[in-house]
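Review form for a predicted model. The reviewer records the input and the model, then writes brief findings.
Reviewer: anonymous (R2)
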Amino acid sequence: MSDRLGKQIPKLSGLNYASWSVLMKAYFQTLGVWPVVNGDLACPAAGDAQEAAWITSDACCQGILTLYCDPMIAMSIESKNTAKLKWDDLKAKYGEPSAMTTFMEFQ
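Model under review:
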């Protein structure tokens, strides 16, 4: 099911951030990993029994974020080493609507 849902999400172009972020949040929720992306579930301490599972989930989320961005945007977040840092960076860059992005979003 989540594979089919993911195919309906367009890549982030910058102008489509408002709708893209809503769809991506929903997609991460269907995968059960939204708390990793938004930071509600922080990485457990080293050696904790849940550490390996969190690292795997975070890597998956990072990959999804990268794949659902246009190539230039994907390159700009490559240096961010957690899904939360990638998400926060995209929100900081594209989350503030301008008159042009609002106009383009509803075309």
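Findings: The CA atoms of residues 66 and 74 lie 5 Å apart.
Further findings: The first helix runs from residue 2 to 6.
Recommendation: see findings above.
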